[in-house]
Amino acid sequence: METLNVHFSPAASGSRVSRVLACVLLMSVVTALSAEPAVSTVAVAPGLSVSLHEAILMALENNRSLAVERLAPQITRTREAIAEAVFDPVAGAALSTGRTHAEGWGGTGDWRHTVTDQIGLSGYLRQAYDTGTTVKLSADTEFTDASSSSRLSATGAQLSVTQALLQGSSVAANLARIHQARLSTAVSEYEVRGVIEALAAQVEEVYWDLALAERRIEIFSESLKVAEQYLRETRDRVAAGAVAEIELAAAEAELPLRRQGLIAATGALEMNRLRLLNLLNPQGGGFWDLPVILSDRPVAPQLQLEPVADHVAVALKRRPDLAQARLQVDFQELEIVQTQNGLLPRLDAFITLGKTGYARSFPQSLTRLDGHSYNVSAGLSFEYPIGNRAASARHSQATLSREQAEAALANLAQLVELDVRLAYVEVKTASEQVVASAATRRLRGETLRAESEKARVGKSTSFLVAQAQRDLLASQIAEVEAVVVQLRSITTLFHLESSLLERRGIALGEPPTP
Fold first, then answer.
1. Phi, psi (5° rounding) for residue 120?
2. Which of 30, 50, 103, 327 could form a disulfide with 54 if both were Cys (CB 3.0 to 4.6 A apart)?
3. For the segment 359-391, what is each residue's pLDDT rounded down to a tens digit?
4. Are residues 311 and 446 located together in one domain of the fold?
C-alpha cells in the first residue's frame, strides 16, 4: 500500500504489534488463557495502516456517499445554461407549396377554370435582450404560376423591433431566473462542503472509537493476566494452608468477568473496524476482511481554547448551512422582483420596416428590392388581465416566502450559536474529566497494590482484592474513555464551527460565490 506523505502530531509511545495481536479473533485470546498455553505462531494478514490525517484524506478521495454528493453541483449548474438560453438567438425557416383551383367569369364574359401553383420559402432570425427588446429579421420569397396570367415572383425582407414598456422592461426581472439558477448552484456547492465536513468529523469519531476498542482489549487482557496470576497465588496459599479454600471462589469469579469484558471489546473493535473501512472505501475492493492498524493513539491533547465568542463568530461566518440560508433569502428577493414585474400591464411598442421586390423570376425580384417602394408599420399593443389575481397571488407568495426565509435564517443562526456553546462546554468538561480519571486510576492502582500486599500476609481477603482489581479495571477504562470523549468533543466543536478541515491542514478553497 502506498503511504501518504503527511504531517500529524506524533502518537504516544506504544507497541503496534501488541495492538495488532489484540485484534485477532477472541478464540485465540481464550486459548491463551489456559493454565499452560501452547506456544504457537499467529500469522497476521497485511493490514491497512493509517493515521488520522491519512484516514480523512482517504475518505475524502474514496467515500462513495461523497462521490454521489459531488455530482449534485454539476447537475444544478445545468440550470444556469437553461436560464441563459432565453437570450440565445433563434433561427427558423419554412418551405411551403400549394395549388388552387378556381372557377369564375372571365373578363370577356366566358366561364373560366383557373389553376394557380404557389411555392414559398421564408426564414427568420430572432434575438431577445435583457432590456425587454426583441429584434427579428425575416426574409421570404414566393413564386406564383397561374394558368390565367403570367408567372410572378415576390421577394421581401423585414426588420421588426419590439420593446416592452411596462411588464418585461426591467433588466433585473429579466435576469432574475439566471441569478436564481446561479444561487441554486452555490447552494448545492455549500451542501457538498457540509457533507465533506460531516464526513471528516465522522471519520475522526469512528477512528477514535476503534482506538478505544483496541485500548479496552489491551486493558482487559492485562487485567485478565493479573486475575490469573492472583488465582495461582491464591491456590498456592490454599495448598500451603495459609488461607481457607473459600478464598478461591472470589478469585475464580474474576476470570469469566474479565472474559466478558474482553468479548464485548472485541465485538466493538470489529464493528468499528467495519464502519471505518466503509468510510475509507480503500481502492481495490474486497477490503471487508482487511485489518486496520491505527497509527495514532488516543492521547489527551494540550489544547488552549479561544473564548467561546470567537468560536461562535467563526461558526456564524463559515457554517455551510448558514450560507445556504442566506442564499435562500437572496433567492426569494429575486422572486419578488419577478412577481412585481408580473403585476404590471403588458404594453409593447413595435416598429416594422420592409421592402418587397416583384418580378417574373426570383433573381429579378431580388434586384427590385433596391427600388423606392417600401412598407413601414408602428404601433402599441396592450394587454392586462382583469383583476390580475394570479400575478397578485404569486407576489404575495413571494413576499411571505422571503419573510419565512429571513425568519429561518435568524432561527438557524441562534441554533448554531447554541450548538457551538454547548460543544464548548463539552470540551471543557471532557478536559477536566481526563485529569480526574487519571488521578482516580493512579489511586486505584495504589489501592490494589496495598490490598494485594495485605492479602499476602493474611490481613485481607480474596473478595477485597478482587474488588480492588475491578475498581482499577473500571478506572483504566474510564480514563481512556475520558480521553476519547475529549477527542470526540473537540472534533464536534471544530465541526460545528466549520473549521475542522482547516485545523487538520486540509483546505477546501474559497467558498462559492453566485
1. -130, 145
2. 50
3. 666 676 666 667 777 788 999 999 999 988 999
4. yes
CB atoms within 10 A of CB 24: 16
**How do residues 158-183 score in pLDDT, each as one tens digit?**
999 999 999 999 999 999 999 999 99
Of 448, 433, 446, the residue nearest 488 (C-alpha): 433
Count of residues for the chain? 514
Structural domains in the chain (count): 2
Q: Give yes or no: residues 282 and 378 share one domain.
A: no
Q: Which residues contact 156 (CB under 8 A, 6 or more apart)?
A: 139, 140, 141, 354, 355, 356, 357, 369
The C-alpha cell 392586462 sits at: 384
Q: Which residues contact 388 (CB under 8 A, 6 or more apart)?
A: 343
The span from the CA of 131 to the CA of 128, in Å, is 8
Element of type H or E holding 193: helix 171-239
How far apart are alpha carbons 107 and 338 in whole angstroms? Answer: 62
pLDDT at position 20 over 60 = no
CA 106 vs CA 115, 254, 333, 477, 501: distances in Å: 14, 127, 70, 116, 93
Contact 238, 244 (CB under 8 A): yes
Contacts of 119 (CB under 8 A, 6+ apart): 96, 97, 142, 143
The three three-digit cell numbers of residue 284, written as one number: 481495490
- Burial pattern 446-460, b for ≥16 Cβ within 10 A else e, equals ebbeebbeebeeeeb
Closest CA to 487 of 304, 298, 315: 298
Angstrom CA distances, 474 to 15, 377, 445, stand at: 23, 96, 11
Structural domain includes residue 281: yes
Alpha-carbon gap, residue 413 to 325, rounded angstroms = 9
Three cell numbers written together for 272? 468499528
